[in-house]
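Data card: per-record layout.
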Amino acid sequence: MELVKPEFGLIFWMTISFGILVFLLTKFAWKPIMKALKDREQSIENSLKSAEKARSEMANLKADNEKLLVEARNERDQILKQARDTKDQIINEARGKATEEADRLIKIARESIHNEKMAAITELKNQVANLSIEIAEKIIRQQLATDEKQKALVVEMLKDVKLN
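The structure for this 164-residue chain is written out next.
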């Protein structure tokens, strides 16, 4: 069992070797390892902060994009409404002008028809007067063709005339 039981010298030298190893590791390796761990921890923390910042910026950008989209839709709706209003106004103006022009043309046509009607009536009266004169002339010629008829007519007219 001697192999399992260490002696005092072995324990002493093992303790001194372990102490020197711990001293050397503490002096030369522990600080760089701890510094590397702190740097890594700081790097991870900075990365997480950057990721959170990027996430919040993306959320802000998304909100801004939504806002811009809503504004663009509203502006589009306003432009379409203005276009419809302008279209309706142009149509109403065109209707008004067309109505005015139609009324003016109807008035001119009525005046023209009236003028032509009056001209036709005047011409008809002139023709009737001419025909009446011609008929009267023919009748008088027939009645006054002989001297006896002329004398009878004069006597008859004298009877109709009353002397005061």
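Known properties of this structure: The first helix runs from residue 8 to 143. Residues 66 and 118 are 77 Å apart (CA to CA).

See the next section for split statistics.
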